[in-house]
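Reading a protein record of the kind used here takes little practice once its layout is understood. The fold follows as a row of integers, each naming the local backbone shape at the matching residue. With these conventions in mind, the following record can be read line by line:

_____
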Amino acid sequence: MLKTFSKADITQQNMLWEDKEVKFDVPQLHTRLHSGEKILDTINHIEDSKGNPGDTGKLLVTNLRILWHSLVHKKFNLSIGYARIGTTNTRVVHMHTKGRIPSQALYILAISNETRFEFLFTDVSGETARREQPIFASIFDVHLDLKLRGAIVQVGQLILLPDEQVYSQVQGVWNLSSDQGNLGSFVVTNIRLVWYADANETFNISLPYLQIESLRIRESKYGPALVIQTAETGGSYVLGFRIDPVERLSELFKELCSLHTIYTDQPNFGVHYDPEEARKRVAAAVEEAAQATQFKIEDYHELDERQEREINTKLNSYLAAGCAGALSTEQPTPAPVYCKELGFAMERIPDGYKLQDLWNLMPTKMTDYDD
């Protein structure tokens, strides 16, 4: 028994490399997008300051990568796949060609084939208003969204991607990657095939259809098995799964072949970004921050300091009188008296003073003072 489905004849034109490679000076780079690739945002007046200083170009943000192409020299361009981006941040740089005007710049560190690439994309529009605007916000939003996708299965349920739909679930699927095999379940969606172990859901495999090179049903020492070979960009793995009975294995094979063909023609990479909505969100955050730092007269209260001055005056008078009495030899030393408030004997307080006035150096409560 042998059934085979392969896309070898269309591999070269549909092989997905855009999100996994860094490339330079590819002919017609920004006009020949991969099937299913969409431009999410366009940022004008951007210079590739490290690679092509002095050339004004455009920065294109797609659902697979970041593209830059020069408007001065058509052959100068570059492509940075999101899977190769290690670090991104913004900086303020001073442009030498325009009187050292401060401008925003996007710094990207990418790693491809053990080679480090550093990119610096600078806003050369010279517009003052763009210095305070987050013109590179779309890049941070898309890249962060992709990095946060880690878990596949949670409490036995597949964590769905945007626009992902579950078509079928198959239980009793043996993963033949080890000698004893691991029992688990298949989840078939419109984007990928997922297997996870019943005993440990963290042991799982997510196979996007675009990374599947071929599907086969072939004989193995365990009987008929579904054999999946991934593309070179997907690691070139060969995976085997056994499903009983054979009739259910054949039905699953037909379903996967059909979904694979549909997805290859119209791929959906699960990345969504609305530039207008993002700009509104950023503008609201900026306005909220501005309001938080804005001076409001109602947030401040004028304190009545007359109580403090009154206490300080009485204390100073008391201390001055005590110093004068200590220097005088004519007045006898007063006898101590018992104080109920303190619970011990103390010197008698002169007339006109209260114990509270001498005990508190500062008033216990400041009251608001309104003119």
Remarks:
- The helical segments are 11-14, 128-131, 137-147, 246-265, 275-293, 306-327, 355-359.
- Residues 8-13, 366-371 have pLDDT under 50 and may be disordered.
- The domain at 22-143+273-318 is CATH 2.30.29.30 (PH-domain like).
